[in-house]
Amino acid sequence: MAERTFAIIKPDAVERGLAGEILARIIKAGFTVQAMRLQHLTRREAEGFYAVHKERPFFGELTEFMSSGPCVLLALEAPNAIQKWRDTMGPTDPAKAAPGTLRRDFGQSIGRNATHGSDAPDTAAFELGYFFRGMELV
Question: Is 116 a catalytic residue?
Fold first, then answer.
């Protein structure tokens, strides 16, 4: 049964011209793109999206980075999409990611790691709803 997850091609990857290659790898991995949008997040939008991390020391740096340039917002669908997307990305730290994962191949650091993905069904529901209205999803 298909599941949906939320993904971001982050500003560092977009700035370096990697969005097309990452998108091609998403499709090659077996995901269906249900919705996609290029968007430059405002600081307020980034703070709302990452509100769960508000008390963490990296919150300011994270929201500043995520609002520093355009990113690609994606609704992806596949069987077991949440785990499949997390496996496709690799761990947050590119240095710990396996060869062939997006973060290993395109990430520069823990903070500039090219992609974001939901980590659980409730997170995916929140994140998809934060950026896409129901009628925007195929």
Answer: yes
